[in-house]
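Before the break, one more example. Copy the sequence into your notebook; we will annotate it together after we see the structure.
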Amino acid sequence: MNVINNTNLHDAQRFMEDKMSRYDTENLTVRMHAKPIRSIYSGLCTYPIRKLSKKTGKYRSNYAKGDYKIKATINSEVLFPRGESATVGTISFEGLMSMPLDGARTLQEKYARYDSILNQEDKHLCDSQRGFFWIKRRIGFTCLEEMMVFLLGHEMWHYMCRSGKMKGTGQRNTQARADKEGVAWLQEFKTQRRVMVNAG
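Here is what the structure looks like once it is written out:
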């Protein structure tokens, strides 16, 4: 893995390299930036170009070969602590309605009851046109390092899926699943930092 770190966020880089050390990442370039941007962070994972077969008229998947690139940019002007929400899953209307929740009859009653008994960090937004609720988890950043770790975890999930490293695991390359991975990286990074502070 070739890392071009245009920031002073060396802890985030070391954490990422440690997390990815068991995988072959020779075909991956990661660029890290911290600068003023409109959003609080912006990530992009690009894949090798697929080639159109003249023989079959279909695209040949060439994802396991060629170069992958991740660009992770965070807003250097963000004030901390900062709270954000990450999409970590979905629940269908049918799934919600099938849950036995103390006599709630309508979808609105069930949704309200369901929302009240869930972990305080999980919030739900209704997407009625697509037939499911987004499951949003509230996450908190206390510094740029934590924000970068979350973003790298998210983008690295896309890389892992598209490069075939998650093949056969049943995991999907979705934004919600990538956010969930980012949250897991963030929680592990925070835990490691607390252990180091307590040990020091």
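The helical segments are 10-19, 93-97, 107-117, 144-162, 175-199. The two ends are 31 Å apart (CA to CA). Try to locate both features in your own notes.
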